[in-house]
Amino acid sequence: MASLQVTSRRVYRRTDNHTPGAPKVELFTEALPPIAPDAVVIKVYAVSLNYRDANIANGGNPWPVTSHGIPCSDAAGEVVAVGKMVKGLVLGDRVAPILDTKNITGRESTRSWLAADEDGVLADYLVFEEEKVCKLPVNLSWAGASIIPCAGVTAWMALKGVGIGKTVLIQGTGGVSMIALKLARAAGLRVILSSSSDKKLEKISASFSTPPLSMVNYAKNPAWEEDVLRLTTGMGVDLVIENGGTESLVKSMKCTRRGGIISQVGYLGRQDPQELAEFLPLLIDRRVTLRGINVGSKHDMEDLCAALSATQLDFSDIIDSVYSFDKAEEAIEYIWQGKQVGKIVIRL
User: Transmembrane residues, as ranges (predicted)?
Assistant: First the structure.
């Protein structure tokens, strides 16, 4: 083992107390996990939060999670130790673990998610097998690089198949949406952005003024799909990055052009199956391709990192705020309340 020898780490674990107002995480010092010959030790410099992290901490995840597991799935750090069988990584490499540690090529039939059915990354040192780690672009800050594994890869996969000059409706102003906005602009797509907050829309519009964004406030107009159709001269958008679920899916279909694509990346709205009464007729009539996006494979993450390196894209303008490691509880609560525009990062 070539390395800085580390034997213990500081790590947060969920309390699994879902009572409103009760602490959701607790800090521990514990032994570093065993280091296999094909594994590396990563010194973590930044961890980014997703709504998923706060949802799990508050008991809202629809899939089983390990008891008192380590939260968060997105980290960026430096390799500080390598096992004797490691071939593709060296000391000093900037890396991040992939979120679905069984999804290497995209053809695997099983899955395993960080911070759900295995421990996450909210710790100062991590141990991962080499095949579950991806190199990061060198041009990004630690904070910017930390948003890649979940939100970044999700946005990347959601935008696939739509070429330059097409129109995309991006719902919301959270992490996936803001990364999708950055990637869409870099790819030459026209963006329509929706939110329930004029204040958020105005803030984002000021940051992305050239070319100007088209905006839709779905809280002011419950029939917001009509606004989208007006903005596309009745044709509809080529792609929707859908965040709401049953509450918004049918409306998204109504404002997608015939033969267009809907990438379902989340279910943040009120879920009511009765909202889907028109689903099948619309699906057939509009010939919509509806695809579920569940992050992506290691190969997909490598493709995104290559694109970010080639374009030198920077994410500093979509980081809402940065918290210190000892403020992890506050960061989780902030994202749970939906106050952010863009990404929340914890710096170690």
Answer: none
Spatial neighbors of 274 by CB under 8 A, at least 6 apart, are none
| H-assigned helices in 232-327 | 249-254, 279-286, 298-311
**Would the pTM of this model clear 0.90, i.e. be above it?**
yes
- Where in the sequence of the chain do the CATH 3.40.50.720 domains occur? 153-292
pLDDT tens per residue, range 237-280: 999 999 888 888 999 999 999 999 999 998 766 667 777 888 89
Q: Is the bond leading into 64 cis (omega within 30 degrees of zero)? A: no
Fold of 153-292: Rossmann fold (3.40.50)
Label residue 38 exposed, middle or buried (CB < 10 Å: 0-12, 13-18, 19+).
middle
Rounded CA-CA distance 167/189 in Å is: 6
Please check the confidence at residue 27 and state whether its pLDDT lies above 80.
yes
Beta bridge partners of 289: 261
Of 126, 9, 17, 113, nearest to 65 by C-alpha is 113
